[in-house]
Every structure is written in C-alpha cells, then in structure tokens.
C-alpha cells in the first residue's frame, strides 16, 4: 500500500512512538489501566445486578430471599464504580501531563539542538504549533485512550464469557458485533490520515500567519498592509473550516454506520434469545440481564471508537512533533570534548570552506587573529561576514577546514564550551518580556547588583536605566518592544559583557546607534576589550577606524587585509564598498541638516 493511503496500523506508529515516554512511569500507567478496568467491570456488574433484582422481584417471588444479598452486592459494585472512576481520572491525567511535560522538554531540547540551522526552513508559527497545540492534542489520547484500548479488548472478552455462560453460544454474537463496531473507523484509516494531515497543515499555516502578523505588526501597519493581512487570515481560516467540516462529516458518517452495527447486533441478539426463551432453552429471568450485559460489552469499545475516529488527526499531530524531534542537528558535540588550556582568544581559520546546501559561501579562508586584537570584517552583502560570525559560535561547522580557538578546533569543543568563550551580539537582538534585571540575569544568573550596573556602564546604558522610574526593574516588552533600537542593542551588549567572553563578535551591533552614541560605545569598548579578541562586522567607517586590522571579503575570499587607511589607499573595490555603505547615511544626514523654510 502506498504511503499516500496508510492503514490504521501505520497511523498508530507515530502516536505509539511518542508513547515511549509513558513507560518512564510504568507503575502509574498500569494502575491507571487497572482502575479503568475496575470501574468498567463494576459498572457492568451494577447494571446486571440491578436488572436481575428487578426481574426476581417481578417474576420470581420465590427468589426474594436472595434480594438482600443481591442489593448488598449492588451497593458494593456502585461504590467500587464511583471510587475507581475518580481514581482512574486522577491517575490518567497525572500520567498524561507527565508525558506531555516530557514531550515539551524533548521538543525544547530538539529545537535547541537543531537551531538555528535546522530551523532555517521552518516557520516559527509551525514550530510553536508543534510545541503547544500538537502536543496538547495528544493529551486526550494519552489520558483516556491508551488504557481504554486495553480494556476495549479485555472488557468485551470477559463480558462475552459471562454471556456464553448465561446464554450459550448466542453470546458470541455480541463479540462479533463489538469487532464490527471497531472495524468501522479502523477500515477508514487512510481517509482519516489524509484529512488529519490536511487539518494540521492548515492549522499550522494559520498559526504561522498569526504569529508573523503579531511580530511584524509595526511593518504591516506602516506599509498599509493591514487589509492584506486580514485577507490572509480570513482565507486561511476558511480553509481550516473546510478541512474541519470534511473531517466532521466523515466522523458523523462513521458514527451513523457504527450505530447501525450496534442496532443490528442488538436485534440479532434479542431475536436469538427470544427464540430460545420460547423454546424453553433459556431461563426467562436471564433475558433482561443478558440485554444489560450486551450494552456493557460495547461500553469499553466506545472510548476506543472515538480514538479511532480521531486517529488521523492525532497521527498527524504526532508526526509533526516527531519531525522536530527526529530532525538532524547541523552541529553535534564530540564524544570526548577538549578544552583550551588558556583563554587568550587567539583565533585561526585554517582552509575553511562552507556553504548552505549547494551554495558556497566561504572558500579556502585562511585567517589568524591575535589575542586581544580587534578585527573588522568588511564586504558587500553575501560576502560571508555573518557566516563567519555564526561559525565562531558553532551555529554551523565548516564543510571542510578548521576554526581553532586558543589552539583547539571548535569541532572538538561542545557548543556550550564554545559559547562560554565566544559571545555574539547580533544586529537585531531579542529581549525577553520581563525587566532589565531579568534580561541581564539571563546572561549571568549569579551576577550581583554592582556587576549589573558595571555592565550597563560599559554598554553606555546606565544613565538611561537610572532615569527610568523603576531602574533595573523597569519592564521590557516582548522583543524589547518598549525600548528603542539603540537601547535594545546596548542592553544586548551589556549581556555580552556580563559573560566576560574571551572573544566578542559584533554583527552590526552599532547599527541602531547614532554618531554620538557610537562614539561613546567605542570608548567603552576600548576599555572592556582589553585582553579580549573582538571581531566586528561593520559598514560604517567610524566603526571600522577603531579596528586594529581590517579584513576585506568578497564572495567568501579574503581580498585584502591590513589597516583601514592602508586598504583604503590600495584597494579600489574596498573604497567602492565603503562609498556605497556610507552614501545613504550621508544623504540622510545632509537632508536633516538642510535649512527649513528656504525654498529659493
């Protein structure tokens, strides 16, 4: 059978693979299942006893002597039923929440393991959907269905045994009916799978569009795209509704067909029993109790039937979770990591080649950076500057060649070891919702108050924070929404300073600072970068001038290296790149300085 039309057994595989987490709590799982069995059997016993008592009272006065004993048994059965319903509900939800907690942590670890390379082609909304709604969608299965599936097999068998004892071979009709009842959704597994994948895919698209709209709200409003965004959301919502409607129609048809199976089973069983009673082959007192046991045989299968109806949806949700869990990591830690014996920050790129897929970015890169040296990487967009920054923090590893930090290849160090020694400050730093203090403590949880202020001083942000009413406890919106671009940048720089890395990588980290702020920050950096290697990716001449050395890149190769003045005098391509980079800034500055009100 083709993969486009999977069987129900194939649909169960991703769901059961995730169930492996349950067996960390085997005892809890079996207690929950046993509790379900107890209350279902108690319910069946209570129904049968109550019917039998009524039958004796009405039709067999001679059997009244047994009624008190039967009533006592009925009270016990009802009590057991009530107690174990509560116990099973408690245990099953504890089990489900533990499984979901582990799944979310495994997803978090997987996202951390594959980021950012493994996230390059994944939309944030889809990943968020996997970590939240897809996992949440599985809670119902793990809380109410796993144990029910066991009882759906065991319960009807035991009830059938009781019916065979009471009515003879006619009891097998009930077992056949239960099997046919469960076969209805099982045989439609392929259609469920297609519908489930379609629903989860459209929901993922809707979540992605909604998240993108929330994150890019400023740009959407400023560009007048709010109506366009509304149309996107409405169109995707309509597609979700159509997919869910098809899912509901199929589910309704399954339910109707299952009701027909139950009705046919009931009628067949009634006719056989009635015939046997007429032929004096069956005690009439058994007839009502047998009908009640017929219903009790279908009760355990009801929960499993509902699970089979949603199997396609749950399988799609489980598969989306597994897609993240099984994603290969672009970088793996060595089995026996090495650690540099010094923290001087010496860097060496030895014949480094790297590309994204089939697109080469860095070619035969050889570069030595001395400890404590400040090196500016300059080049046109796509020259490989940011790629070098990402390789330095092991977001990726070179395709070939080695990057050495203090004599040890980054491949021989764990990602954590590398990132303790190399700090990257990006052009668009992300700040978490909370306070200035909490964002600083993310970088250094044990930092004291004085250390926090020292980092802010070094980043030229302390005067601003002191001017805020709540100081360090001033709230910061998600993504730093309550701060200006320059303030976000300087807070990210303060975070890096708190970590005291031996290598500081700044990828356009002063892009949001004006000339005065940049000059202040340059003075601060001159102090804090003492005995610290600094790699600066920049286009501004004012930033490049402060570097001890400039490395000019073109299409992943080093074209020129030396001081800014030397390359400026000897490399026309370098002068051209700087002229294009500075022209927009100079034009904006010239426009802002033009006198107003003079149209002559």
Automatic annotation (TrEMBL):
Its main location: membrane. Keywords: ATP-binding, Cell membrane, Membrane, Nucleotide-binding, Transmembrane, Transmembrane helix, Transport. This is ABC transporter ATP-binding protein. Belongs to the ABC transporter superfamily. Lipid exporter (TC 3.A.1.106) family. One of its GO terms (molecular function) is ABC-type oligopeptide transporter activity. Pfam families: ABC_membrane, ABC_tran. It is a multi-pass membrane protein. InterPro entries: AAA+_ATPase, ABC1_TM_dom, ABC1_TM_sf, ABC_transporter-like_ATP-bd, ABC_transporter-like_CS, P-loop_NTPase, Type_1_exporter. The chain crosses the membrane at residues 38-59, 71-97, 140-166, 172-191, 247-273, 285-308. One of its GO terms (cellular component) is plasma membrane. PANTHER family: ATP-BINDING CASSETTE SUB-FAMILY B MEMBER 10, MITOCHONDRIAL, ATP-DEPENDENT PERMEASE MDL1, MITOCHONDRIAL. It is found in: Cell membrane. Residues 41-313 form the ABC transmembrane type-1 domain. Residues 347-580 form the ABC transporter domain.
């Amino acid at each position: 059978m083709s993969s486009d039309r999977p069987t129900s057994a194939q649909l169960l595989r991703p769901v059961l693979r995730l169930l492996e987490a349950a067996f960390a709590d085997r005892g809890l799982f079996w207690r929950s299942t046993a509790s379900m069995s107890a209350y279902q059997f108690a319910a069946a016993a209570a129904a049968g006893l109550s019917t039998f008592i009524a039958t004796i009272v009405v039709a067999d006065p001679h059997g009244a002597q047994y009624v008190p004993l039967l009533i006592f048994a009925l009270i016990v059965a009802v009590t057991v039923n009530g107690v174990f319903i509560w116990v099973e509900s408690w245990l099953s939800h504890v089990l489900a929440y533990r499984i979901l907690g582990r799944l979310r942590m495994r997803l978090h670890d997987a996202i951390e393991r594959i980021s950012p390379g493994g996230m390059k082609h994944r939309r944030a909304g889809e990943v968020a959907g996997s970590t939240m709604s897809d996992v949440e969608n599985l809670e119902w299965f793990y809380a109410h269905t796993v144990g029910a599936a066991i009882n759906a097999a065991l319960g009807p068998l035991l009830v059938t045994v009781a019916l065979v004892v009471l009515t003879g071979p006619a009891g097998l009709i009930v077992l056949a009916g239960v099997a046919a009842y469960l076969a209805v959704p099982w045989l439609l597994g392929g259609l469920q799978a297609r519908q489930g994948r379609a629903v989860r895919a459209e929901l993922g698209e809707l979540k992605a569009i909604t998240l993108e709209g929330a994150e890019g709200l400023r740009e959407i409003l400023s560009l007048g795209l709010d109506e366009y965004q509304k149309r996107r959301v409405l169109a995707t919502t309509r597609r979700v509704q159509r997919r869910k409607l098809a899912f509901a129609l199929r589910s309704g048809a399954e339910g109707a067909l299952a009701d027909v199976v139950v009705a046919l089973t009931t009628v067949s069983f009634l006719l056989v029993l009635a015939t046997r009673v007429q032929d004096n082959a069956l005690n009439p007192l058994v007839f009502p109790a047998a009908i009640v046991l017929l219903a009790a045989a279908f009760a355990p299968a009801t929960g499993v039937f509902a699970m089979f109806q949603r199997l396609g949806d749950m399988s799609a949700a489980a598969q989306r979770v597994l897609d993240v869990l099984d994603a290969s990591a672009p970088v793996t830690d060595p089995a026996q990591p090495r650690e540099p014996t010094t923290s001087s920050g010496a860097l060496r790129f030895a014949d480094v080649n790297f590309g994204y897929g089939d697109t080469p970015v860095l070619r035969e890169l050889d570069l030595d950076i001395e400890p404590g040296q400040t090196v500016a990487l300059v080049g046109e967009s796509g020259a490989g500057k940011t790629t070098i920054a990402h390789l330095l923090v092991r977001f990726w590893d070179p395709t070939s060649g080695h990057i050495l930090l203090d004599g040890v290849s980054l491949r021989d160090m764990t990602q954590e070891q590398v990132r303790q020694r190399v700090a990257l400050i990006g052009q668009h730093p992300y700040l978490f919702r909370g306070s200035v203090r909490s964002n600083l403590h993310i970088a250094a949880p044990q930092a004291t108050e004085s250390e926090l202020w020292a980092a802010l001083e070094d980043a030229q942000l302390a005067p601003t924070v002191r001017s805020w009413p709540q100081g360090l406890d001033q709230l910061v919106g998600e993504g730093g929404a309550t701060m200006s671009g320059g303030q976000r940048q300087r807070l990210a720089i303060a975070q890096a300073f708190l970590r005291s890395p031996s290598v500081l990588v700044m990828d356009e980290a002063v892009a949001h600072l004006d000339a005065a702020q940049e000059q202040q920050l340059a003075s601060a950096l001159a102090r804090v970068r003492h005995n610290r290697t600094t790699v600066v990716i920049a286009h501004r001449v004012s930033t490049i001038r402060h570097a001890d050395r400039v490395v000019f890149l073109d299409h992943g190769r080093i074209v020129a290296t030396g001081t800014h003045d030397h390359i400026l005098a000897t490399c026309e391509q370098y002068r051209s790149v700087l002229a294009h980079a500075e022209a927009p800034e100079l034009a904006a500055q010239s426009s802002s300085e033009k006198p107003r009100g003079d149209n002559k």
